[in-house]
Amino acid sequence: MTTSNEPLLSVQDLEKHFPVTKGLLKRQVGAVKAVDGISFDVFKGETLGLVGESGCGKSTTGRLVTRLLEPTGGKVVFEGRDITHMSQGKLRPLRRDMQMIFQDPFSSLNPRHTVGTIVGAPFHIQGVQTEHGVKKAVQDILQLVGLNPEHYNRYPHEFSGGQRQRIGIARTLALKPKLIIADEPVSALDVSIQAQVVNLLEDLQNELDLTYVVIAHDLSVVRHISDRVAVMYLGKIVEIADRKRLYSSPMHPYTNALLSAVPIPDPKARADGDRIRLTGDVPSPLNPPPACRFHTRCWKAQDICKTVEPPLEELASGHRVACHFPENAPEPAPKTAAATS
Amino acid sequence: MSESPFLDVKDLKIHFSTDDGVVKSVDGLSFSLERGKTLGIVGESGSGKSVTSLGILGLHRGKSANVSGEIWLDGEDLVTASQEHVRRLRGRKMAMIFQDPLSSMHPFYSVGDQIIEAYRIHHKVSKSVARKHAIDMLGRVGIPEPKRRVDSYPHEFSGGMRQRAMIAMALSCDPELLIADEPTTALDVTVQAQILDLMRDLQREFNSALIIITHDLGVVAELSNDILVMYAGKCIEYGSAEDIFYRPEHPYTWGLLGSMPRLDREPTERLLPVKGTPPSLINVPSGCAFHPRCPYSDQTDGQSKAEIPALINTDPGHLVRCHLSRTQRRTLWENEVKPVLETQ
Ligand SMILES: Nc1ncnc2c1ncn2[C@@H]1O[C@H](COP(=O)(O)OP(=O)(O)OP(=O)(O)O)[C@@H](O)[C@H]1O
Ligand SMILES: Nc1ncnc2c1ncn2[C@@H]1O[C@H](COP(=O)(O)OP(=O)(O)O)[C@@H](O)[C@H]1O
Ligand code: SF4
Ligand code: SF4
Ligand SMILES: [Mg+2]
Ligand SMILES: [Mg+2]
To answer: Is residue B10 within 8 Å of B70, Cβ to Cβ?
Structure first.
């Protein structure tokens, strides 16, 4: 993987608090802290996976980064330019470079438009000239994503779920973006089709030198596709590391619990008694627990976890964790390791 | 003569007439299940899993549905039984857990009242006895503070708690057959793990026969004794969990295993998807319904396209529906498929 030192995307202390209002006067009575101060970098040519359970803020992060949502705090820097509060007019040329793929291949395509119109739209919106006309350009992209160029005049309902997701991918590729944020790109698809789309995303990355942020709740898919992985819990990143480290020596108790909960397709694995089982559900982001947000479900929690928020610290090279009592922590003491890396 | 199985489904067909033609959702399905055992039914969406489960519960009667075959439950054929009789069996002898508990619970009644109601249909007890039972059941499925939560409404519960309440409701009448259709698909993975543990424990305790329906091979591996793989309304492979995971013989089963990234193995370079898309159930492909997607369809002397393969025994208790010879299947698995699945 070709990664340079300059991040393509840099996110610093990013925050999105949705106001919760009540009554006719829309008095604000609270805030959903959907994303609550997260920082990460994405380097050119790599795939960053973003995992976590429902409602932890993955999609909101994707929408903030692509500026489909306005951040309430923090910074988004793309190719060295601060785009956090850039006006829509100024953003427009940047929209070519940053595209989003959505989860639901059914609702994200306009049913009244042909495939040609859908995939060709970005050319028209951005006023892009093409060498042999838009139609030829669109047909080339259709071919690239494994659809038949003759599908140009067909409508979305004539396609299967996997094919619709390919149409969605074709549309995002039209303008040769640099960064693609894929929000659950395969979770609505059948297993056999999931694998086809995962392979397609990988092929396109190699061919077109794309950078991905892949948002998913399926930890197996994320491991397969990512170079680095960030784990979110209630609006925070609790751990981020390269995929090998994250899956082989996860340090945050929540990451350990998540991995332990994945059902293993092997009847022998069933006997395995020492799996970690969390109790209860994820608390509401309206009222997240103070300090370490995971302390209400964590089996290692001590008093300090309820009073002092653990910072996201680098405990091994490229491996950052927010926990007072991490698992698999490298010796010598964490602080020294952080200083030398 | 040995005693007949607790649940015995024979040549079950469930077809629907629609404007576009006849949908053969379930097309000749046979399997049996004993008390205390778990059968996993896997298949991709539209392969007929839910139609099968609703069919067993007798929920397809009338209108456009055409049900044929036999469903023997504890010595009674449910296909020929009166609708009234099957209705009485539902809840008492057999119960179902659905994917989406919200849609199967009444929004205006408290969770407790719904359990009490269900219990009193089949048990002549006073309201307060039934209420004690409801509280007891909610506690058993791990709802915290059941005495207080018994009066909550479904929308006041989280997804995981609703699924627990649904299980409490299904189990409140101590059913001998429990069908769970994608019981954890809508849940987060940590909650899914809790629910799977719970179902395993309760089944042991109640000794009921359990059918778990899912598209997730991980989930079936966690719970099942036997596994039935469905494709286009038919069983294409049936065997013990060990048969299906360690010595599968059907090319579609191989495809499912190759499509799936696995956390329990070294990461692979590439997934091995099944090519193409699942078939329409109105115009099912000729011969073996899997032939347009099967990499080996040219190794059967043209039979794959021409003739529907029979479901045959390849080993005791292990059935396969494929025209390849047993030797061909085993050689392919050992030499071509297994090495790629395990080493890549
Ligand atoms: N427009 C909004 N107004 C208020 N709250 C919102 C809004 N959008 C999202 N939220 C809340 O923010 C939190 C994070 O939502 P988000 O969609 O980012 O979760 P997610 O991690 O993508 O979850 P999933 O895996 O279910 O897609 C949730 O509690 C959600 O209810
Ligand atoms: N009432 C109905 N009328 C017509 N077709 C139906 C009906 N119910 C289900 N089907 C069709 O039967 C097939 C199998 O459906 P189902 O059992 O729900 O699949 P799954 O395996 O995903 O649970 C699908 O093609 C579905 O569209
Ligand atoms: S800080 Fe404490 S509560 Fe939080 S994850 Fe670490 S050990 Fe658990
Ligand atoms: S019968 Fe033919 S097409 Fe069907 S699975 Fe066997 S080899 Fe493949
Ligand atoms: Mg989301
Ligand atoms: Mg279904």
So the answer is: yes
